Amino acid sequence: MTFYLASVSNGHVLAHQENSRPSGVVVENKGDRGDEQKWTVEHGDESNVVALKNAASGTYLHCFEGKSWGKVGTGDKQWWRISDDDVTAPGACRIGPVDYPDVFLNNHSGNTVRKGAAGTKVHMYKWEVSVCTSHT
């Protein structure tokens, strides 16, 4: 069974990008392409740990650099931890490589992608909790 991985900020889906432009995986509108946008979930030995295999390429979601703006694409199998710690949107989660616990999957500035346009860059980013205060 395959799944779409959708961004909370704008509903775009994660897709394998063969030419690595603007990155090895991008976010784009659901339905703009086929199996490049679908992922198979393989469960690890620990709870909430998965590997994500792309349906089109047969390669896995892979983080190459454990830092903010770090490169992410597809490659060898890598384990990712799913967590809802500090996530406020109902039903949402964050996903980060087990190898690099301080960074998480992020799409560039949450930009919107026009229907049929090239996808927006995906990279790794250090998790930040927004703090909002109101003045009364």
The class by helix and strand makeup works out as mainly beta
- CATH topology-level name: Trefoil (Acidic Fibroblast Growth Factor, subunit A)
What is the second-level CATH architecture? Trefoil
Largest sheet: 5 strands, antiparallel
Number of strands: 11
- Rg result: 15 Å
Uncertain runs are none
String of helices and strands:
EEEEEEEEEEE
Secondary structure tally, helices: 0
Biggest sheet: strand arrangement: 1-4-5-8-9
- Determine the N-to-C terminus distance: 51 Å
CATH class: Mainly Beta
How much beta, percentage-wise? Answer: 35-45%
Shape: globular
Indicate the percent of residues in helices.
under 10%
Average of the residue pLDDT scores: 87
Count of separate structural domains: 1
Q: Any key phrases for this structure?
A:
0% helix, five-stranded antiparallel sheet, Trefoil (Acidic Fibroblast Growth Factor, subunit A), 136 residues
Describe the protein in words.
The chain is mainly beta. The protein has one domain (2-126): Trefoil (Acidic Fibroblast Growth Factor, subunit A), CATH 2.80.10. The chain is built from no helices and 11 strands. It has strands spanning 2-3, 13-16, 25-28, 39-43, 49-54, 60-63, 72-75, 80-83, 94-97, 103-107, 120-126. Strands 1-4-5-8-9 form a 5-stranded antiparallel beta sheet, with no helix packed on it. Strand 6 and strand 7 (72-75) form a beta hairpin.
